[in-house]
Amino acid sequence: MSSQPRSRWRSAAPARPEWRDILLGFLGGTLGIGVLAWLALQSSVPLLIASFGASCVLLFAAHNAPLAQPRNVIGGHVLTTFIGLAAINLLGDSLWVCALATGLGIAAMQALRVVHPPAGGNPLMITLAGMHSWTFLVTPVLAGAIILVMIAWLLHRLRRHPVRWPVYWY
Questions:
Q1: Which is nearest to 85 in space by CA: 124, 143, 36, 45?
Q2: Domain ranges in the chain?
Q3: Which residue from 87, 125, 120, 90 is spatially nearest to 105, judged by alpha carbons?
Q4: Locate the HPP transmembrane region domain: which residues (predicted)?
Q5: Is the peptide bond between 140 and the residue preceding it cis, with omega within 30 degrees of 0?
Q6: 170 Cβ neighbours under 8 A, 6+ residues apart
Q7: How do residues 138-155 score in pLDDT, each as one tens digit?
Q8: Is 73 helix (H, G, I), strand (E, B) or coil?
Q9: How far is CA 90 from the centre of its chain?
Q10: For 60, phi and psi rounded to 5 degrees?
Q11: Among 152, 140, 113, CA closest to 43
C-alpha cells in the first residue's frame, strides 16, 4: 500500500446503499414507470416521458436530496414544460429555440426553487420533437409527475422503517 497521501481530487466512492434501499430503488422505478404505462394503456392517454425515468432515480434512490422533493419534481416538470411549449409556439422549433428554452427552464427552476434535473430535458424534448399542443402540460407531464410523487410517498411509508419523505413540501 502506498504511503502517499490521496489527492484531493481522488476520493473514495460513496458507500454502497443497504440492500433494502437498493430493493426500494428497483421497486420504485418498476412500479412508478409500470403504473404510468398501465394507466396509459387503460386510458389511451400518454403518461410516459423519458425524463420520468430519471425522476424515479431521484425519488427512489436519492429521496433526501432537495432535488427529489415533491415541489421540485412537480414544479420543475410543469415549469420547464410550460417554457418549452411557450418557446416553440412563439419562436418556432429551431436549435437556437431549443437552447434558449433549456436555459430559460434552468434559470426559472433556480429562481422558483424547484430545481429538478430530469425536468431540464423537457424543453429540449419538446422543441426537438416539434410538440405544440398545450395538453402535453397536463398529460403526461402534470399527471405523470403527481402519480410518481404519490407512489414515492406510498413506498416510503410502507418501508419497514419508514423514512421521512418528503423532507419538505414548500
A1: 124
A2: 19-158
A3: 120
A4: 15-160
A5: yes
A6: 71
A7: 999 999 999 999 999 999
A8: helix
A9: 26
A10: -110, -15
A11: 140
Cα first-last separation, the chain: 49
- Retrieve residue 63's grid coordinates: 429521496
Mean pLDDT over the full length of the chain: 93
**pLDDT in the model for residue 2:** 53
Average pLDDT of span 119-148: 96
Between CA 137 and CA 30 the distance in angstroms is 24
pLDDT cut 70: percent of the chain above it: 95
- Cα dist from 10 to 6, 13, 153, whole Å: 6, 9, 36
Q: Determine the average pLDDT of the residues in 21-47.
A: 95
Top-confidence residue, 6 or 136: 136
Burial of 83 (0-12, 13-18, 19+ CB in 10 A): buried
Q: What is the pTM of this model?
A: 0.90
